[in-house]
Amino acid sequence: MIVIMSLLSLIAELDPSTVRVSAGELLFARGDPVRQLFLVKSGLVHLVRHQENGSPTVMQRATAGDIVAEASLFASNYHCDGVVASHAELHRIPISRVQHRLRTDAAFASATAQHLAREVHRMRVRSEILGMKTVSARLQTWLALNGGELPGKGQWRSVADDIGVSPAALYRELAARRRS
After folding, report:
1. d(CA 148, CA 144)
2. Rounded to the nearest 10 degrees, what angle do helices 2-12 and 106-130 cross at?
3. What is the sign, positive or negative, of the torsion defined by CA atoms of 30, 32, 37, 41?
4. Could you give the number of structural domains in the chain?
5. Among candidates 59, 21, 58, 57, which has minimal Cα distance to 39?
6. Is 110 found in the same domain as 146?
7. For 17, phi and psi rounded to 5 degrees?
8. Domain boundary among 120, 151, 166
9. Element (H, E) at 31
10. Structure pTM?
């Protein structure tokens, strides 16, 4: 958490503007030039890539403290769509300002690198969970990695999203665990 706070405070020094975006709106589309860095203050933003058959794959679930599409720091165009999944408040900073700070401020570059390394770890864990065959195994691994506790009742849908199952499948698994 210390790394997140230091990155957030360093980003605040870049004088970001704050934008509020409604669910369903696009922050950017695949192929758009990268002009902004978005940092989630509240809400949920999905980074979505559509397969050849049109089905969407969520590549990132960005929540409070997350940078949306981190790879965009070093890309000229977005490789996915940035879709607001639930009403969100975001910091928006011109990418040129962020890149300049990365080149000239070692503390900012270090905090950003640490944040990105944690994101790589988080995505590897998510990939491992999504590769598991049963809802039970996915949930058990998620619980082990998240302190063994489920969030409050209103947040179970986000757990279902995290482990790549429908909310109904998660609810069935939770009911089976309560019966056991």
Report:
1. 5
2. 130
3. negative
4. 2
5. 21
6. no
7. -90, 155
8. 120
9. none
10. 0.75
The contacts of residue 1 (CB under 8 Å, 6+ apart) are: none
Most confident of 43-52, 62-71, 89-98, 148-157: 89-98
Joined tokens for residue 166 = 């429908």
* Whether 140 and 114 share a structural domain: no
* Same-domain check for residues 71 and 155: no
- Residue 1 is predicted with a pLDDT of 40
Range of the domain at 144: 135-179
Residue showing tokens 């998240």 = 146
**Token match 């757990």: residue?**
159
Q: Mind listing the pLDDT tens digit for each residue in 97-129?
A: 999 999 999 988 888 888 888 888 888 888 888
Domain membership flag for residue 143: yes
What six digits make up the tokens of 95?
């990418």
Average pLDDT, the chain: 87
Structure tokens that stand for 147 in this block: 């302190």
